[in-house]
Amino acid sequence: MPINCKSQCGNRATLKRPKTGDALCKECFFAAFEAEIHHTISSSNLFRRGEKVAVAASGGKDSTVLAHVLKLLNERHDYGLELVLLSIDEGITGYRDDSLETVKQNRDDYQMPLKILSYEELYGWTMDRIVGQIGRSNNCTFCGVFRRQALDRGAKLLGVDSIATGHNADDIAETVLMNVLRGDTARLRRCTDIRTGGGEDSIPRVKPLKYSYEKEIVMYAHYKKLVYFSTECVFAPNAYRGHARAFLKDLEKVRPSVIMDIIYSGEQLRFKDTVKKPVRGICTRCGFVSSQQPCKACVLLEGLNRGLPKLGIGKKSKGERMIAKQDQELALRERANLVKNDF
Amino acid sequence: MCSIGEDDFGDEGAAHAMVAESLPSGIVLSPGDCNKCGVTSSELYKLNFRTAECRDCFLAYARHKFRAALGAAKILPRNAEVLLVLDGSAESLVLLDMLHFAQTQNTFKRLHCNARVVYVEDQQVQGRDPVDIEELRNLSTQYEPFEFHMIKLGSLPNSLQRIKDYNTSPNKTNELDQKLHKLRSLTARQDYLQQQRKNLVASVAQELQCTHVFEPSISVDLATQLLTAIALGRGGSAALDVALLDDRLAGDVKLLRPLKDLNEQEIQFYIHAQRLKPLIQSGSRYGQERGQTASLQNLTTAFVANLQQNYASTVSTVFRTGDKIAVNAHPEQTSCVHCQSSLDSTLSDTLLAIEYSRSVSEAGVGLYKNGEDLEGLAKKRLQSEDGLCHACRGIQAELESGKFLVLTSGWSGK
């Protein structure tokens, strides 16, 4: 028996909303999906009229849907925003070069200016070369740390007021679980925030898709026939995050509301006064936001340039010992050269 | 035919159904010298991250963990009346044995408290054979002078009986059993049952004039409990679910978890060293036989166990995370009528987003035409005065009809 749309619009239902379990027709699903994002934006005051907003675009489903919906809502509800696309080229052959083509397609489709920044021009290294140095393990650390800073650099360059990222509800719930598994209280405190950063010296990041389910984003992109890139990164996926992800997917099968429940739990967590809080500051070397001195990006880059790629991986003391050892060897070699020259 | 749980025989075969061997791995049975006291012993106990030691040194170490948990927090007043909850599991027997030992020492070292034991009979709810009363009676003789009591889960606190006078009442279905059957999912049933169990223990404690309750949860239980609480949307109160002291029980009864620093290996070794015989196998809690994918709780238990095999510090890291969190509450806040956790004083954006989703799904394309105040509607739904927290509303929503969360029996609410 055909099922009618829950909203009693008279149409037949074509899909079951993963988030609420309601049977809806395509049009009602679009309306509900867009209205929720509008509600998130307006109730959290994510943007102000006249602001310039960079949409962090990778060409994947989340950022494509984000760019599409932001453009649509900006026109429908007259937010008065200037939207631009910002992409980072990590230099991963067979992955990012293809996905950037999709972003260029988005640029043409949505009539938004696009800025592409590459690791090559920012750091002098592409991910292909970094993987050549470090191997298949830990390479995601480099990519993640550099991308985070690259977005900040790009935003500064474009002079935007905020960066909108495509993090969806699943991503946030997964991060809550992962941070509990890792005991990372500093990240646990802030990973559920809809807006992070922002202050005198940094550009805020906002997550308009915070309450959108990944499954619904895929459905929306599918039924709207949006062009997006869906290949996994060619380098090994982050194994530990993979466990949290698989666990969340299993939980979602048992009870779909679990994603929102985990986000809610994450927001409700409070910490004892004895737990150390990270202090956000500015890296003395590069001048970008960091809670460490020097920032992780600078340490990783130093490691690459010194030929010690493992420098920023693992304990800080271990890295310091590696530097000391290398300096000592250099000094020895220099002295040996001096001795030779004497003769 | 019900097929839930059948998939579990896919990847790992029936590994989860296997019973652990009676002798825990790691015990060196060949004679050797204890690294601690130097005495030659026929059995050496080698815990992870510790050198091999003799039986006496191991027992002193394990018992110290129990005493230290209570002592460091200065949480148990002198001569407190304590109720120990026995469920027949290995952990509960270890707790019983440790408490008994702590009381039999000389005045200087003795733990000054008066203990009673209650066995919560849940076999009927679980659909299993009744417990062997004789074994319980043997335990009560072994651990004299502790008084042993027995109560059926779901019955009134005044039906509490001394174990020596206990006679099995005819099997009539009780109210709790019926309520459980009305809940659609196993997730809600397990969540509900856990709360009801706590309520029953609290009222038994009041009946016996006990101010403190000892619960035999060990570190792996608490790590699982923390993740489960987060998955159920109980993040605000998760800290109390895993803390040494939980004060949410009725009648100002305080729940203590003195075994929280012990791990599974230590429990197994203790059981072996003291020749204790658990009455139930581990992993036989309500609904666990239905397999990993049957509920959020089962899934979390399996996840923690699997992860622990590949990443040996998983349990301790999650457990330490639990140590760092605090309860999200203000003194003036009202509590949930079911689980006694603090209710949200401010409106949560996430909860509003959940309600808003329901409203827009109902409105569909009409949401722009009719000009309805959907946000107002969502807020109204969220602020309905049922006195329940978000997670308990989740249980309530699964019940087709009627209010159930405040059960009349088993919960005195004094």
From TrEMBL, chain A:
Summarize the protein's role.
Answer: Plays a central role in 2-thiolation of mcm(5)S(2)U at tRNA wobble positions of tRNA(Lys), tRNA(Glu) and tRNA(Gln). Directly binds tRNAs and probably acts by catalyzing adenylation of tRNAs, an intermediate required for 2-thiolation. It is unclear whether it acts as a sulfurtransferase that transfers sulfur from thiocarboxylated URM1 onto the uridine of tRNAs at wobble position.
Organism name? Drosophila suzukii
Which locations, inside or outside the cell, does it occupy? Cytoplasm
What is the protein's major site of localization?
cytoplasm
Q: Where does the record place the tRNA(Ile)-lysidine/2-thiocytidine synthase N-terminal domain?
A: 52-230
Q: Where is the Cytoplasmic tRNA 2-thiolation protein 1 C-terminal domain?
A: 282-311
Q: Where does ATP bind?
A: 56-58, 62, 88, 166, 171
| InterPro entries for the chain | CTU1-like_ATP-bd, CTU1_C, Ncs6/Tuc1/Ctu1, Rossmann-like_a/b/a_fold, TilS/TtcA_N, tRNA_thiolation_TtcA_Ctu1, UPF0021_CS
SUPFAM superfamilies recorded: Adenine nucleotide alpha hydrolases-like
Belongs to which family?
Answer: Belongs to the TtcA family. CTU1/NCS6/ATPBD3 subfamily.
| Pathway where it operates | tRNA modification; 5-methoxycarbonylmethyl-2-thiouridine-tRNA biosynthesis
The gene behind this protein is: Ctu1
Pull one GO CC term from this UniProt entry. Answer: cytosolic tRNA wobble base thiouridylase complex
What is the name of this protein? Cytoplasmic tRNA 2-thiolation protein 1
Q: Which GO terms describe its biological process?
A: protein urmylation; tRNA wobble position uridine thiolation
- Which GO MF terms does the UniProt record name? ATP binding; nucleotidyltransferase activity; tRNA binding
- List the EC numbers from the record: 2.7.7.-
Q: Quote the PANTHER family the UniProt record gives.
A: ATPASES OF THE PP SUPERFAMILY-RELATED (PTHR11807), CYTOPLASMIC TRNA 2-THIOLATION PROTEIN 1 (PTHR11807:SF12)
**Which keywords does UniProt give here?**
ATP-binding, Cytoplasm, Nucleotide-binding, RNA-binding, Transferase, tRNA processing, tRNA-binding
Pfam families documented for this protein: ATP_bind_3 (PF01171), zn-ribbon_14 (PF16503)
First-tier enzyme category under EC: transferase
TrEMBL record, chain B:
- Where does this chain mainly localize? cytoplasm
Which InterPro entries does the annotation name? CTU2 (IPR019407), Rossmann-like_a/b/a_fold (IPR014729)
Protein's recorded name: Cytoplasmic tRNA 2-thiolation protein 2
Provide the gene name from the record. Answer: Ctu2
State its role.
Plays a central role in 2-thiolation of mcm(5)S(2)U at tRNA wobble positions of tRNA(Lys), tRNA(Glu) and tRNA(Gln). May act by forming a heterodimer with NCS6/CTU1 that ligates sulfur from thiocarboxylated URM1 onto the uridine of tRNAs at wobble position.
User: Which pathway does UniProt place it in?
Assistant: tRNA modification; 5-methoxycarbonylmethyl-2-thiouridine-tRNA biosynthesis
Q: Name one GO cellular component term.
A: cytosol
| SUPFAM superfamilies to which the protein is assigned, alphabetical | Adenine nucleotide alpha hydrolases-like (SSF52402)
PANTHER family linked: CYTOPLASMIC TRNA 2-THIOLATION PROTEIN 2 (PTHR20882)
Q: Which UniProt keywords apply?
A: Cytoplasm, tRNA processing
The organism's lineage? Eukaryota, Metazoa, Ecdysozoa, Arthropoda, Hexapoda
